[in-house]
Amino acid sequence: MITGLIIDGCERAGASGRTTPLINPATGEVFCETAAASAADVETAVAGAQRAFEQGWRDLAPGKRAEALLRLAALIRENAEEIARLDMQNVGKPITDARAEAALGARIFEYYAGAIARLCGETIPVAGGGFDFTLRQPVGVAVLIAPWNFPFPIACWKAAPALAAGNCAVLKPASLSPLSALRLGALASEAGIPPGVLQVLPGPGGEIGDALVTHPLTRKVSFTGSTAIGRRIMELAARGLKRISLELGGKSPNIVFADADLQKAASSSPMSVFGNAGQDCCARSRIFVERPVYGRFVEKFIEAARGLVVGDPEREQTRIGPLVSAAQRESVEEFLLNDHRVLGGERVGGRGFYLRPATIPGCDTTDKVWREEVFGPVACIRPFDTEEAMLREVNDSPYGLSGSIWTNDLKRALRVARRVESGVLSVNSHSSVHVEAPFGGCKQSGLGRDLGMSALEGYTELKNVFIAEE
Ligand code: NAP
Description:
This protein has helices at 39-54, 62-78, 80-91, 95-115, 151-164, 179-190, 205-214, 227-239, 262-274, 291-306, 326-336, 368-371, 387-395, 410-419, 452-458, and strands spanning 5-7, 10-12, 19-24, 29-35, 123-124, 131-138, 141-145, 168-172, 198-200, 218-224, 243-247, 253-256, 286-290, 343-344, 358-360, 378-384, 399-400, 404-406, 426-427, 442-443, 446-447, 460-467. By secondary structure, the chain is an alpha/beta fold. Helices cover 39% and strands 20% of the residues. It binds NADP nicotinamide-adenine-dinucleotide phosphate (NAP).
């Protein structure tokens, strides 16, 4: 297990010597300690990344960069079980989910290894003659700040496009979940990616975050986390006019029309909000059901939710593991306090931070639990009568990340998809993340996009070059 900082290709203790204890959410017990970076480590890591950038990574032939990323992807596949177990132990992720996420990490590096060849400029017929073309150049040192809910895939979907475009990066995992990111840093070295290209710095965000964002040598900040910290990063980044991309909170709708395949919608909807114990920015936690099928939907939803196995993340049949921490569970429970409508929501087991999924039918649009991001396994359901009224309620939220529409009427699906204020949306499906497609939000859910070609372009500077021909 890697527990030190990864700086310039080596594992080392932090300059301050401080460490962070990690608690296994399934047991509530400390299982290891990792080094905690301080401002002095930020200096060393950023200087090392800048050196690696200037001394070769930015100028490496695209094919060579692609080969390096493919070697890293292969190593991720070889070590997938170990990576999955790190996230299982570190954040309580069910092992089947953790395995899928480790494999996703490998796919992301494979995709961006291929995408390098498609990072094209264009030639532009400028009016006065001459030859004009654009170049996509790396921006320099990128700061990648990741949350704890999907530690490995989010680290990969930030690091892969950053490196593919020729940047070097300092990756700061969440303090609760540094282990798989540290493993990624070590695997990058094994894959022959030069020292300094990918630095991994676990440490308290409140302390080293500002130093990373305001450092004169960092040129881009890609952040995934809460809206409050995103706002702070935007303010700090404005001082240095840095590029930013922010993937923030959500309160996504799940819209079920009466003509939908009700069985499919109702049986798949519980995992769209309770998956990852509800700690998912895309959780479809506001469910709108057209009145004629409301009663039947709620019945089927509750039946499907009851069938979800809550428990030990190591068991293959577990669908819902513990919440990440005692504090996270308490913050979810506060939303349920004294609400007589709640079905479920009880603690499970004598140890660990388990909570049975909670369903709240008949929610009102003014309820706190309906309006705020819970980041736990809580589903709110409400009937609707007309498309117009429903859309007003859907968009009456500060967030705009994801969502689903269930209908067999294609025209309606298109009409509603256009009107929902969100960055991603799915029809007759609950999937939000596709490696090849842009992912991100609007309004208080953030700006900029991860994944797809959009993310790759986001790590580049678009330069225009004009060559006089006379
Ligand atoms: P968070 O508290 O905002 O933390 C996210 C990351 O930011 C962590 O690495 C954290 O480090 C770091 N951080 C904390 N203070 C910082 C500062 N002043 N400057 C720079 N970095 C700082 O969020 P979280 O509790 O980990 O994650 C939950 C939130 O993330 C939810 O709102 C969720 O919706 C959102 N999220 C969004 C997406 C998306 O794609 N839109 C995906 C996943 C999660 P420490 O851990 O050391 O504090």
